Amino acid sequence: MSGYTSNDLEVAVVIVNYRTASLTVQCLAALKGEKALLPRLKAIVVDGGSGDGSAEELAKAIEHADFCDWVSLLALPINGGFGWANNQAIMTLAGSATPPEFIHLLNPDTKVERGAVAALVRDLQDHPNCGAAGSQLLNTDGHLAASAFPFPTAGHEFVNVSLSERLGGLFGVGARSLQPGKAMDVDWVTGASVMFRSQALRETGLFDDGFFLYFEEVELMHRMRAKGWSVRHVPESRVVHIEGAATGLGAAAVRPHPAYWYRSRRRYFALTGGRRGVAASNLAWVGGSMISALKSLAGRSVANPARLKDLVRVGVLPGKSDLSSSVPAWSDQPGKPPAWMDTK
Known about the structure:
Elements: E1 11-17, H1 21-31, E2 41-48, H2 54-62, E3 71-76, H3 82-94, E4 102-106, E5 110-112, H4 116-126, E6 130-138, E7 148-149, H5 154-162, H6 165-170, E8 184-186, E9 188-189, E10 193-197, H7 198-204, H8 216-226, E11 230-241, H9 259-297, H10 308-314, H11 340-343
Parallel strand pairs: 1-2, 1-4, 2-3, 6-11
Antiparallel strand pairs: 4-10, 5-11, 6-10, 7-9, 8-11
Helix pairs in contact: 1-2, 5-9, 8-9, 9-10
């Protein structure tokens, strides 16, 4: 690759732990093999106020010879959510003497395959207008997992809630996830394994900390795309993902979504489409729910964790806080509590 010099690159991996210390250590063990390809690779493990002894367990593990010279621990006093915790690490890195050129966010319930991190670096090097590059996730059985997606729209809401991609096809609405099979530009990629170009974060800002969990990476990449940066899916970067290990909302989970999922959804549509965007997505949800209910009566539906009554219970109308972004800058100092705590 022209101009690609891995020995000179500063690459930082950020892993946010919340009560999954043993998985985090396993994640680090797999990540260690990437240092042969990226000698200046370093990692920050963030403990998001676990309160279960995770921080102490991780601190002890990091003292091991395998980790002590390239892994550090950032223990936070509160559980401020996924985006906020990552922001704390990113702002810490930004204030260091040598900020990294690329920052890779990696879930603790993942295991990178050999060369996965280096593949993201190569793709970003080869595409200087790319602001974020995401891996191909694999289920634990080796099958491909959803990793790249179109931005949510009212049409996608209808398809998702009705559980009928056939109806979506009739209305010209594509699948809710993509399986491109080759490296290509997409709308957004999963936050379970995504590498950001630091320059893109300088220009667009970090995660909006009005989100607690879910939709925060979608909103960031929406903002990034609006600034002219591309987002790419890189299937050469393969990462095994134990989906939902920390949240319980994996692909096989059929329990209802928690309230914060609905609040995050509402905030995403409010920030990207205003009140009209929220209204359109909710109308599509109602229509999809009617189709889902009819299918259920006919005995043809499967369990759906997205429920209309929960949407209504949490609230369908966006408040003032939903319409106001809260995006820290690259140069901001860490430590400020997340905005969602002021509105809860």
